[in-house]
Design goal:
By secondary structure, this protein is of the alpha/beta class. It has one domain: 3-Layer(aba) Sandwich (Rossmann fold), CATH 3.40.50.300. The chain contains six helices and seven strands. The protein has a seven-stranded mixed β-sheet, with helices on both faces. The longest helix is centred in the last third of the chain and has 18 residues, at 152-169. The mean pLDDT is 89.
Length: 170
């Protein structure tokens, strides 16, 4: 079985914790980051011979290290070196949310982007060219509606594929 260490990052209220809950179900542990009052959520799930350990990083707008949440998220990615980070992007506010994804890429960490709340974006007349984002950021892009568990399996596939590609190039 392949063990994969995955971190979920995103702005507050982007649906990151809903995706975390969809992935881990009842296999999660909630505590606090060491020495911090910010909640830490970790969970494990199994998929197609893989064990994925998921860490739900605190919601943050950037990794500039001004707030406790930013410091925790940045330090976790740098020091714990997850196999991959999933950037959960609120599809209704693409520009603000992509800023964090670009900062994660600057840390040289494999990235999968999930455009969440695509149903709301569509209702607002927002149509996103996933292929252009994927090409521009050299990352897989998956649409999800986490509140309805839509796109979660495609997200897991993108995680597994991207981690596998990283192992081939290591």
């Amino acid at each position: 079985m392949n063990d994969l260490h995955i971190a979920l990052a995103g702005n507050p209220n982007c649906g990151k914790s809903t995706i975390f809950n969809s992935l881990t179900g009842s296999h999660q542990h909630v505590g606090n980051w060491p020495g911090k009052t910010v909640e830490k959520k970790e969970g494990i799930f199994h998929y197609d011979g893989h064990q994925l350990r998921i860490v739900d990083l605190p919601g943050t707008y950037s990794l500039t290290a001004f707030s406790q949440e930013e410091i925790i998220a940045r330090d976790y990615i740098i020091h714990q070196k997850p196999d991959l980070v999933v950037a959960v992007i609120d599809a209704t506010n693409l520009e603000r949310n992509l800023y964090l994804a670009v900062q994660i890429l600057e840390l040289n960490v494999p990235l999968v982007i999930t455009l969440n709340m695509t149903d709301l974006a569509g209702k607002r007349g927002i149509h996103i060219d996933e292929e252009k984002i994927a090409q521009a950021l050299h990352s897989k892009v998956v649409s999800t509606i986490a509140s309805e568990d839509q796109g979660i399996e495609a997200l897991v596939q993108a995680i597994i594929e991207t981690c596998g590609e990283g192992l081939k190039h290591a």
